[in-house]
Design a protein that fits this description.
The protein is of the alpha/beta class. 46% of the residues lie in helices and 15% in strands. Pfam families: DXP_redisom_C (PF08436), DXP_reductoisom (PF02670), DXPR_C (PF13288).
């Protein structure tokens, strides 16, 4: 290896073709690109053209498609470049095992769990954007990071905000954390109106630009429900220390309340590059080309309590936190089935939380997970039960 190569920071991006992944590479490019970073591996799924383009632009050593069916296409696209190509679960495992000190975990869903655990166990710093690692396998994942010796750097804007303002030397005085939610496109809709929600209306998030599934999860507040469970695991909190408040402007990303009555908040324009940049350069801060807040233009910040009748997902998250064990995995697995069914127009918008609640009730006696295999088993069982309720 040349001296120049050895001085570059080694990074891997699991899920480079999604929203988080493309924004991560945008930040990497702004901080010096391939002159400053040695990209060990990039992984994607079906967007082979983009994955190949990323691999060539950033000089990745390995490019992986999660789909075995796309292996030949990726190999053809990178022919003659010297970039290694792999596919499937074994390919993802190879990418996670690559010698990168910093790994962006941005693969969506349970597919991201195993490779992220692999990276954590070998001691990499994990920039975490995959929800399932904490929602479904929280204790096991946090233990893996701790034993591996790496750092857990949250990328979700809300958790990154808490990470920025939660002072570890003041943890004894921590009283509560307050997660903010925009309220989504149906914040002012009646329950009757929400009965006629379509996929197109549900995907229109008022503040953030996101993919289809996460936009619908945000509209139902299931995204916030998952973030509650994530926060419990990330910051070692009791369920009663976690609050949610609706904040339509999405300027305050989250708040931390202390025993003396002080509340510290992190503010910023809605741009994922802020959280990604902080995770990439932590503990330093670096200049980023993001929009600056103009307080005079904002003029006001509004807050309101979420309506538990219209948005029962938050109650279900609290029940899962209190139950512990595999309840988070069950909630998430059932939610995924219900979400897919809504997108396919097999169920209505308000049916999603009902299916999740019934699945959680039917699987409330499942034993706690002792291994990652137990987490996968709970997830699969929840999906089977939820599918039977459609």
């Amino acid at each position: 290896m040349t001296e120049a190569a050895s001085s570059r920071r080694r990074i891997t991006i699991l899920g480079s073709t999604g929203s988080i992944g493309t924004n991560t590479l945008d930040v990497v490019a702004g901080l010096g690109g391939r002159e400053a970073f040695d990209v060990m591996a990039l992984t994607g799924n079906g967007n082979i053209r983009l994955l190949a383009e990323q691999a060539k632009t950033f000089g990745a050593r390995l490019a992986v498609t999660a789909s075995d069916d796309h292996y030949a296409d990726l190999k053809d696209a990178l022919s003659g470049t010297g970039i290694a190509v792999a596919a499937g679960k074994s390919g993802l495992a190879e990418a996670a095992a690559a010698d990168a000190g910093w790994v962006m975990a941005a693969i969506v869903g349970t597919a991201g769990l195993a490779p992220t655990l692999t990276a954590a166990r070998r001691g990499a710093d994990i920039a975490l954007a995959n929800k399932e690692c904490l929602v479904s396998a929280g204790r096991l994942f946090v233990e893996a990071v701790s034993k591996g010796g790496g750092r857990l750097l949250p990328v979700d804007s809300e958790h990154n905000a808490i990470f920025q303002v939660l002072e570890e030397n003041q943890r004894h005085a921590l009283e509560r954390i307050i997660l903010t939610a925009s309220g989504g496109p149906f914040r002012n809709w009646t329950l009757r109106q929400m009965g006629s929600v379509t996929v197109e209306t549900a995907r229109a998030h008022p503040n953030w630009s996101m993919g289809l599934k996460i936009s619908i999860d945000s509209a139902s507040l299931f995204n916030k429900a998952l973030e509650m469970i994530e926060a419990q695991q990330l910051f070692r909190l009791r369920p009663d220390q976690i609050e949610v408040v609706v904040h339509p402007q999405s300027v305050i990303h989250s708040m931390v309340g202390y025993a003396d009555g002080s509340v510290l908040a992190q503010l910023g324009c809605p741009d994922m590059r802020t959280a990604i940049g902080y995770a990439l350069t932590y503990p330093r801060r670096t200049a980023l080309p993001v929009e600056r807040l103009d307080f005079a233009r904002i003029a006001r910040l509004d807050f309101e309590a979420p309506d538990p009748e219209r948005f029962p997902a938050l109650r279900l998250a609290r029940e899962a936190m209190e139950a512990g064990g595999v309840a988070g995995a069950v909630l998430n697995g059932a939610k995924e089935v219900a979400l897919d069914a809504f997108i396919a127009e097999r169920i209505r918008f308000l049916d999603m939380p009902r299916i999740v609640e019934r699945t959680m009730a039917m699987l409330s006696q499942m034993p706690a997970a002792a291994s990652i295999e137990d987490v996968f088993a709970a997830d699969e069982k929840a999906r089977q039960v939820a599918a039977g309720l459609l």
